## 1
Amino acid sequence: MTTRRWDIDERQTGIADGSAMDPQVQSLLDTMKRDGWVTEEPEAHLLPHLRRACGEDWTLTTEQLLDDGVYEVTLTPTKESKDIKPIEVHRTAIRLLSAIAEPVFFVRQSEPGVFDCVTGVLDGDPPGFRSHGHLVRLILN
């Protein structure tokens, strides 16, 4: 395994640790653990926005709410996509998921073509709604 952080990294170390964002991340974690925080009926609240975000480039092929509250959505490209670079797949996933983004928005690529997202409203976030959220797994085939 290389010690470089990207292809032309010469320093091999950063300028600080990430603890400056600890309070924000901890707030999200604490809030996500509240019973009933994950919102019901993602097919009503999220699906229309995801369909619009697909535009002419993607087709929504499956969607299902899993027992753990994760809303799993699978998309396939409408055009040949064998030559899409991994970074472009990542950027596409972020663009699609941004259509459902709320004040808190976290995305992590968990495996090739699979993006896990938490989005929602924490206490005190604008526009002042009660705290709630969504767990979404976007699969780009």
## 2
Amino acid sequence: MAWISLMLAGFFEMFGVAMINKVHRDRNWQSFMLLVIGFGGSFLFLANAMKTLPMGTAYAIWTGIGASGGALLGMLFYGESREWKRLLFIAMVLSAAVGLKVVS
């Protein structure tokens, strides 16, 4: 169950990162509330996962999902570069997260 909470925390983190861009563009209270919900959910699920998982492992995987997911969202929805080198390093971050799960 802790791993599911950690994955949800990562997805809420990705949502929160996307909402930063929305707040920057729209500057309205609805966008701000979505930002708060995204990061609030992220911290809530991360705290739940850390009841069972080691702090270092949980934090590393959470940041990996958020960073990689944010970069992928930028490529898919905001026209950011899809250069092969960028994709390679995103894959490396995700591989490291999977590796931490395997050894934990």
## 3
Amino acid sequence: MATLPFELVSPERLVFSGAVTEVIVPGAEGEFGVLAGHAPFIGMLKPGILTIKADGGARRYFVRGGFAEVNPAGLTILAEEAKPLEELDLAALAQQIQDAREDVNDATGDDTKQRAARHLADLQQVYEALERDRTGATTH
């Protein structure tokens, strides 16, 4: 299978760099996959699980904020936060959810309240997915 160069970058470090077969990205407009030869594209990220597929299997990362850019040189994701799932602290994520709840309650104006509510829903969705993954539960 064809590969594409991929870099996942956070403010603290280069999280991942290498040739991959596919990356599944939690985009603000919906999840999208990137394979070799993908058309140029720029998209915003939402909090979620990013999956990197390579010959050695799949790796999963929590990402929050930032954007993805696909161009002829490959895929680059600049994320406000990016860490392997095994490094993710569920207690810290729970605190982010609590902070987001407070942001919803404190929001003035419809736009601000809607943005805060969407951010809260995204974080809750990630927390629930991680809980399902941790407990082995499935949803159908």
## 4
Amino acid sequence: MIEIIAQPLTKAGFTPFGDVLELRDTPDKMINQDMCGRHHDLADFDFTDGRAGISLFDAIPRELPYHFNLVERHPLGSQAFIPMSMSPFLVIVAEDLDGTPSTPRAFITRAGQGINFHRNTWHGVLTPLHAPGLFAVIDRIGDGANLQEFTYETGFMVTNQQE
């Protein structure tokens, strides 16, 4: 078992894998009679043929240390996880090495952050750390095989840097 220490999710650290969805310091514009700040166009959705769809995922919360050996990717479209609670969640990603994932990295979001994985990014499954594990997921809806899974021979254990 290989230990991975989860880092706080930051834009700089996550840029190779996707977009961090969070409020900016100031909204792009005020709407609804100046009662709502719009933080506009936070993700780069990338789909081949097909269309964007919104689904709800209800995942069972996990605990740290978290053990895993499976990652997946979506070659035909990006995928966004937007929590429907103000709880942090675990994000696992890996760079691609000629069609297989490299050693994974792990991040823990802050309350209010979501993520958008770039198309073809190796990532772990949806991993809430607190109940409810309810997420809005925006991804590609369409024909074709948009899921590839990879099982590592050696498992990984994610711990929190603050432990």
